Amino acid sequence: MVALLFLITLTPASAQDASPSPFNTVPMHSGQAQPFPQFLPSAFGIGPNINISNETGSQSETSVAVDPTNPSHILESVNDLAQSTGAGAVVWESTDGGKTFTSTNIVPSGFCYDTWLGFNATGDAFVSFECSDQRIAYKKAGQTSWTSTILTAAGSFPDRDMVTVDRSATSPYVGSVYIGYDDNGSNNAPYLLYSRDGFTTWTRSSKIFNGNPTIGVNATTGPDGTVYAAWEDYTGKKAYMAASHDGGATWGTATVVTNYRLNTSTFFVSIPPQSTRGILPFPMTATAPAGATHAGRVYVSYTDKDPVGSNTNIYVRFSDDGGATWSSEAKVNDDTNSAYHFHHQIAVAPSGTVGVSFYDTRLDTANKKTMRYVSLSLDGGVTFRRNLRVTTASSDETGRTVNGNQYGDYQGIYSDSAGKFWLSWTDSRKVGAIAEDLFGGSVTTK
């Protein structure tokens, strides 16, 4: 296995066009992790828990992607505070089906964060991330090094970015790479950056929404090339979606996906298992691919308050008319003890099976220790099956000495070409100072 390296330099904050607003997700520097008790392993169909980073410092906010041309080729990424110089954007690579991983791009200096991964149909890899500016790195199939580019069209202070790739052979924009983000230096306005090949000629879309400030602009593409963007309007306490029919250049009218019961107007929402940083209950989204059951169906998952309790649950809604109207919400978690659930992520397998992963406190009466769970839907998101516990030990990110970022803002799930779901998450089971690690695992659909 070959270790790959590229260096990313930081554009000083003074060089930015405008000062960022306080409503951003840039990581903090502080604290240490806590030890925790262990629980028994969980359900059938769950692969082993793999400590991918296994470092003495802190990691948070994870992403995962699988090469569609080779399911043994897996990438997992993380914000890495283990390095003495600050947070780094780190990607780990496996070529043996997730058994072992090698660090492929470490930022030895500077402050970079918010990594997100994707592959195109021919096996070229992409990772988006930020260093107070917007960046994209790509590694073409067969190459041994990454190429990183600063995307100057992003605006004054891009935040909470994500990348998605159009891999549909029936799309007129197949091969296009999209980065969703909000411009924190311009009232958190939502945008997409797009390139028709992911390597050259990046263009910023028109503003997606002209209403309140936003956070968590997450995009997905349909079999016909339609681009969908979903986000949280935190002052208005709503989740929205808009569609683009010209490859992300312009956008139609935004529609409300859900009205939050949570009070999102504080931006971060404090809950017992993440009381320091708080959570952002922004929507995640995925689309059923061509050939799948309910092909073209657009899914949105989100965190919201229980209708009668103070705890939080994970919900999914879907649309069959391009986001114009939405189904009633389906509750994903199946516990009955008013636990807290957060950091949901959603993916759709080639068959149409929907997978949703999330943190869950159901095994801790104090609602502080978490385990990572997954639930599958075989009927297009109408109902979700018995929740499967993925983690074999708990994490506890509460207390005075934990890292201030706690679990961060998001975790990962991705379906490979065979329909197996691969996961990434922040895990603090290892005893020691600032001991959060990037973990990975998998769930079969049988």
SSE layout and pairings?
Elements: E1 50-51, E2 59-66, E3 74-80, E4 88-94, E5 102-105, E6 113-119, E7 125-130, E8 134-139, E9 147-150, E10 158-165, E11 177-183, E12 189-195, E13 203-204, E14 215-221, E15 227-233, E16 238-244, E17 255-259, E18 269-271, E19 274-279, E20 284-287, E21 298-305, E22 312-319, E23 330-331, E24 341-348, E25 354-360, E26 369-377, E27 388-389, E28 395-396, E29 412-415, E30 421-427, E31 437-443
Antiparallel strand pairs: 1-31, 2-3, 3-4, 4-5, 6-7, 7-8, 8-9, 10-11, 11-12, 12-13, 14-15, 15-16, 16-17, 18-19, 20-21, 21-22, 22-23, 24-25, 25-26, 26-27, 26-28, 29-30, 30-31
Instruction: Work out the helix count.
Output: 0
Distance between the termini: 31 Å
Query: Judging by the overall fold, what is the CATH architecture?
Result: 6 Propeller
Write down the overall mean pLDDT: 89
Give the oligomer, counting copies of the same chain as homo and different chains as hetero. single chain
How much of the sequence lies in strands comes to 35-45%
Number of domains: 1
- As a percent range, the share of helical residues equals under 10%
Q: What's the number of extended β-strand segments? A: 31
> What is the level 1 CATH name?
Mainly Beta
The computed structural class is mainly beta
Task: Using the coordinates shown, work out and report the CATH topology.
Answer: Neuraminidase
- The Cα radius of gyration reads 20 Å
